[in-house]
Structures are given as structure tokens and as C-alpha cells.
Design a protein that fits this description.
The complex is a heterodimer. Chain A is mainly alpha-helical. Helix content of chain A is about 80%, strand content about 0%. Chain B is about 85% helix and about 0% strand. The chains are: A mainly alpha, B mainly alpha. At the A-B interface, helix 2, helix 3, helix 8, helix 9 and helix 10 of A face helix 4, helix 8, helix 9 and helix 10 of B.
Chain lengths: ~230, ~220
């Protein structure tokens, strides 16, 4: 399977998986933080909007969301935008995949961030407010840096599942690892070898990420405060 | 918006929903059983039980489900000489995959039981199997019900992956209808709503259970 065209395809597939999940991850982190903060803010309507987002995206299978972004969203756009999309965006499936994965992971991340926020003692908020910080400043300088450290372990888990979920974009024909493995099989009938190789790739990359993140976790630990029980 | 496409094909798609439910129920039962065995093996002090179970759990948790499905799909012809039908292939790969997740939930549940319980059981002369069966598991199962219900919701969603090997469950059928009628917006919104209805009921149950448990225990 490493023979001429296939080896190169496989390597390309690996890179596609990596940058697809990274892009989705960036969207997910930004959106996830926003929604998590929405869900703990005082006004009721904002909190409701936040939890509606989480409920909606968590309770619909990712595959359905993916199909929705890929098949239905272009039809919902106004005519000129639709034409522009078909003419100028040849790899629309890739971008649909990124958007779907990003918004989906955001809903899962928001829950993790929220539990991180709620794990912070109320005294921290009160202290921050009483030193005259505004709501935004309180979150930016006091709460979020704290919460961030608490959630690093679940954060890693979420990144790994984002990385694994990226394999589903094969259903909308994005050429990532899984699809490449399947695609090579259709020429060579060596499906078992290619899927085994793809599995090894996933395991190696996740193993590497776990190693890096446990290093990061050690570096960022606040002395005496958060110690993960072993 | 043209909703006739849904009413016209309702029966066809409902048939897929039945299959989805069957698949989820079988997966839950099988996954739970295998998961309990794996969790007990992982907590065992015997090396020949601990290492294989730990390896199994890490291995499958590190892989995407879709790849497990493909893998099994390609592997069975090599071993048995003939290919499985889609339903069996899907059931086996779901059970094998979800068992790893169940095992971790169950392990956490078992570890939440104070050590004194198993000490007391052993000192009253129970064997390790009896201790697990009569003392630890009944309490642990009660503690982890909310997590198990959440996992059931996840499985219900995951069955949509049967799509990739051509299993005609709900999503596949919606997709087939879309291929014929070209009404993506209505159909995928409909599919989303159906999944949303079932899954949010499940999540709500899990939340209620969690609140209930906390009131009882703390």
C-alpha cells in the first residue's frame, strides 16, 4: 500500500485530518468559551440561549449535522451566494466539515468550560467584583485563567474526540485518513491493510497528544491548588 | 418548505427508526455485559486480566467508531471467508466499541464505592465473584445510572454511523429519500428534530436521575 500513488495519498490524508480538526478546534474553543460564559451570566434570556445551543447540538447526531451543513445549508442561501459558492469554492465539503465539526465540538466544550467555571469558589467572583473589576474584566483576568487550568484534562479528551470525529467527514467525501484508506481499497482490494494503517495513525497521533497535554498540564499547574488525583 | 415529502415517505423512514432502536438496544445490552466484564478485569489484581483489559479499553477509545466498523467489515472476510451482512457487522462493531466506554463508566462507578464495603464482604467470607455480584455491583450500578443513560443517548446517536456500510437505519433512509426527492432542507431538519426529541428526553432523564441521586446520597 505504500506503492507510488497510494503512499502519497495516505500522507496527504493524514495532513487533511490534522488541519481539519485543528481548524474545527479553533472554532470550537472560541464558540465554546462564549457559550459557556453565556450560560453562567445573570440575564435569564442569555442563559437560555446558551443552553438551547448546547441542547440542540449535543442531542443531534454529528452525522445529521454534517449532512445538514453539506446538503441543506447551500440551499438555504440566497441565489447569488449559492452560485458564488458553487463556482468559487471547489472544496465546499471540507469547509462544511470544518463548520459542522467546529459547532458540534463547541457545544460539548461549552459544557466542560461551564463545569470549570462553576468549580470556582464564589469568593473569587466576589473578590474580583469588590476590587472594582467589570463583569468582562472579572472573567478575562480572574475566572477564565482559573477555569482554564481546571478543565485541561477534559479539554484534552474533547480534542481527541474532535480529532476522531473528523473521520466522519469521509461521508461527505473529504479525503482524510479514513476516506483515503477506503479509497485505496477500491483500487487495490487491500482494505484490511489500509484500515489497519489508518488505525495505527489515529492511535499514534492521540498518544502523542496525550503526552504533550500531560506535559502542558504539569507546566501550567497552580502550585498547591489543582492537583489531579492519580 | 414542502412538508409533503415527509408525510409521503413517512412509513419508509419510520421503518428505519425501528431498526435504529433495535440496533441501539442490542448494542446497549451487549456493550453493558462486555463492559462489566472488562471493568472487573481492569480492576483485578491479576496481571493476565488487568493488562489485556486495559489494552483493549485504551485501544478502542483511541479509534474513531467509523474506522472500527470498516475494520471489522474488511477483517471478517479474511477470517471466515465470507462477508457479514450489514446488520451483524454493525452490531458487532458497536458492541465491541461501546464496551470500552461502558467499561470506563463502570470502573468509575465501582471505584466510587468505599473500600470498606469490599473489605467487609471479604471478611464475611464471600469469594471475589460473590463480593462483586452481591455487594459492589448493586451499589455501583445505582451510582452510575445517570452516566449510563447518557451513554445510551450517545449510542442512539452513534447508530447513525451504520450509514457508512449501507445499513438502512433512519439516517440512511432519510438520505435515500433525499437522493430521490432532492429536498435536503426539509428532510435533514426532520431527521434532526426526530433525533433531538429522543435524545433530549434521554438527557433529561439522566439529569433527573443525577439530581435524585444527589438528594439521596449527600
Amino acid at each position: 500500500m505504500w506503492r507510488h500513488p497510494y503512499g502519497g495519498m495516505f500522507v496527504k490524508g493524514i495532513f487533511t485530518t490534522i488541519h481539519l480538526s485543528l481548524l474545527a478546534w479553533i472554532i470550537a474553543v472560541i464558540l465554546g468559551i462564549m457559550i459557556a460564559v453565556f450560560r453562567v451570566l445573570p440575564p435569564r434570556s442569555i442563559r437560555l440561549a446558551g443552553s438551547a445551543y448546547v441542547q440542540l447540538f449535543r442531542n443531534i447526531p454529528f452525522l445529521v449535522q454534517l449532512f445538514f451543513w453539506y446538503f441543506a445549508v447551500p440551499l438555504l442561501l440566497p441565489k447569488p451566494a449559492q452560485e458564488w459558492l458553487y463556482d468559487h469554492v471547489p472544496d465546499y465539503s471540507y469547509w462544511a466539515g470544518v463548520t459542522a465539526l467546529g459547532t458540534y465540538t463547541a457545544s460539548r466544550l461549552a459544557e466542560q468550560f461551564r463545569s470549570g467555571l462553576l468549580a470556582i469558589p464564589l469568593g473569587q467572583y466576589r473578590a474580583a467584583y469588590s476590587t472594582g473589576l467589570t463583569t468582562f474584566q472579572t472573567y478575562r483576568y480572574v475566572i477564565v485563567p482559573y477555569a482554564f487550568r481546571i478543565i485541561i484534562p477534559p479539554f484534552t479528551t474533547e480534542f481527541l474526540s474532535c480529532f476522531k470525529n473528523s473521520s466522519l467527514t469521509m461521508t461527505i467525501s473529504v479525503m482524510e485518513i479514513t476516506h483515503t484508506a477506503y479509497y485505496i481499497d477500491s483500487f487495490t482490494w487491500h482494505g484490511l491493510e489500509t484500515t489497519t494503517a489508518a488505525s495505527m495513525m489515529y492511535l499514534c497521533i492521540s498518544g502523542f497528544i496525550v503526552l504533550v497535554m500531560s506535559f502542558v498540564e504539569k507546566k501550567l499547574r497552580i502550585p498547591g491548588m489543582i492537583v489531579r488525583s492519580q | 418548505m414542502d412538508l409533503t415529502v415527509i408525510t409521503n415517505n413517512f412509513k419508509f423512514m419510520a421503518g428505519g427508526l425501528v431498526l435504529t432502536f433495535q440496533l441501539s438496544l442490542i448494542t446497549m445490552a451487549g456493550g453493558l455485559l462486555l463492559g462489566i466484564i472488562l471493568a472487573l478485569a481492569r480492576l483485578s489484581s491479576k496481571h493476565w486480566l488487568y493488562y489485556p483489559a486495559t489494552f483493549y479499553i485504551h485501544f478502542f477509545r483511541g479509534l474513531p467508531l467509523i474506522l472500527v466498523i470498516f475494520w471489522l467489515y474488511f477483517l471478517t472476510p479474511v477470517i471466515t471467508g465470507k462477508s457479514l451482512n450489514e446488520f451483524h457487522a454493525a452490531v458487532i462493531s458497536f458492541v465491541v466499541f461501546e464496551a470500552a466506554y461502558f467499561a470506563e463508566i463502570i470502573r468509575a462507578g465501582i471505584q466510587s464505592i468505599p473500600h470498606g464495603q469490599s473489605m467487609a464482604a471479604y471478611s464475611s467470607g464471600l469469594t471475589s465473584f460473590q463480593c462483586a455480584r452481591h455487594v459492589i455491583l448493586p451499589q455501583a450500578l445505582r451510582n452510575m445510572t445517570p452516566a449510563l443513560v447518557t451513554q445510551a443517548v450517545v449510542i442512539f446517536q452513534d447508530t447513525s454511523l451504520g450509514y457508512v456500510i449501507g445499513l438502512r437505519e433512519f439516517l440512511r433512509r432519510v438520505n435515500l429519500v433525499d437522493a430521490r426527492e432532492a429536498r435536503s432542507v426539509e428532510l435533514y431538519l426532520f431527521a434532526g428534530l426526530i433525533y433531538l426529541a429522543f435524545c433530549s428526553t434521554g438527557s433529561l432523564c439522566s439529569q433527573r436521575l443525577e439530581n435524585h441521586r444527589q438528594r439521596n446520597w449527600i
